[in-house]
């Protein structure tokens, strides 16, 4: 029986088996070497991360102790995905020159506005007080003129006008003596004329006040004889009644 022979150039199966057995160990060694290199890179990365975390902790000395991460043996930190995350707190920054200048400008503006508002309120209060003083002074001037100026030809009408512009004690006094005074003037035919020289407001509120009045009076006799004028200093008490200032009391100081 003829023996089987391998054709020239054909691969030897036994040789292939030996080659495969020789290459397999080399592949395992390379894989182990690759794994070692990967572990070394991982260790290096973990160590680097630990150093960075330590540097962050040194930059924030006031941070809470629970937020600090200390560098140590790289083996203490497990895989990178399991490394703890440190929350970095915002640092306080001192305001710069521009911010300080802006704050100072706002402070000056606020103070100026506050001063302007205060001055405006003071001005309005002063204007109201001046207006009220002028109102009381005018009422006192008019009241004294009506009260002391009596014409013998229409004495009753003059006294009635004075009565209409009075209130309180003065009104009660005119009601008691007004008729008799009118008859006396009509019988004597002596008229009285009053000139108010000056007024000075002593005190006022919204509804009452006291005004000092300086006045002069002269009497007109039927024979037109000249008589010296008399000077008067009068304290007039005024009260607001029905929206109108009326004389409530009159005191002759001189």
Verbal overview:
It is a single chain. This protein has 254 residues and is an alpha+beta fold. Helices cover 51% and strands 19% of the residues. It is built from 4 helices and 4 strands; from the N terminus they run H-H-H-H-E-E-E-E. Strand 3 and strand 4 form a beta hairpin. Helix 3 runs antiparallel to helix 4. It is rod-shaped and about 155 Å long. The termini are far apart. About 11% of the residues have low confidence. Keywords: Membrane. It is found in: Membrane. This is VirB8 protein.
Question: What characteristics describe this protein?
Answer:
254 residues, alpha+beta, Nuclear Transport Factor 2, Chain: A, 4-stranded antiparallel β-sheet, 4 strands
What is the chains' assembly state? Answer: single chain
Per CATH, which architecture of the largest domain? Roll
Highest CATH level, the class of the largest domain: Alpha Beta
Number of helices: 4
Keywords: Membrane
Protein name: VirB8 protein
Region (Disordered): 1-44
Organism: Mycobacterium riyadhense
């Amino acid at each position: 029986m003829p023996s089987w022979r391998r054709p020239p150039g054909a691969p030897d199966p036994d040789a292939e088996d030996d080659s495969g057995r020789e290459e397999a160990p080399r592949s395992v060694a390379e894989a182990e070497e690759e794994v070692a290199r990967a572990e070394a890179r991982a260790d290096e990365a973990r160590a680097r991360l630990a150093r960075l975390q330590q540097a962050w902790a040194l930059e924030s000395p006031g941070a809470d102790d629970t937020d600090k991460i200390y560098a140590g043996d790289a083996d203490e930190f497990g895989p990178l995905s399991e490394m703890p995350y440190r929350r970095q707190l915002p640092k306080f920054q001192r305001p710069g020159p521009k911010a300080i200048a802006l704050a100072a400008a706002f402070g000056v503006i606020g103070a100026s506005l506050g001063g302007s508002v205060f001055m405006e309120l003071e001005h309005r209060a002063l204007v109201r007080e001046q207006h009220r003083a002028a109102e009381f002074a005018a009422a006192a001037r008019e009241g004294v003129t009506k009260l002391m100026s009596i014409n013998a030809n229409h004495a009753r009408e003059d006294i009635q006008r004075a009565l209409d512009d009075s209130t309180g004690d003065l009104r009660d006094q005119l009601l008691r003596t007004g008729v008799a005074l009118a008859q006396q003037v009509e019988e004597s035919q002596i008229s009285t004329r009053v000139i108010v020289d000056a007024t000075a407001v002593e005190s006022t509120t919204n509804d009452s006040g006291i005004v000092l009045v300086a006045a002069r009076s002269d009497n007109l006799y039927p024979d037109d004889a000249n008589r010296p004028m008399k000077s008067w200093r009068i304290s007039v008490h005024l009260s607001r009644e029905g929206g109108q200032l009326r004389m409530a009391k009159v005191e002759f100081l001189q």
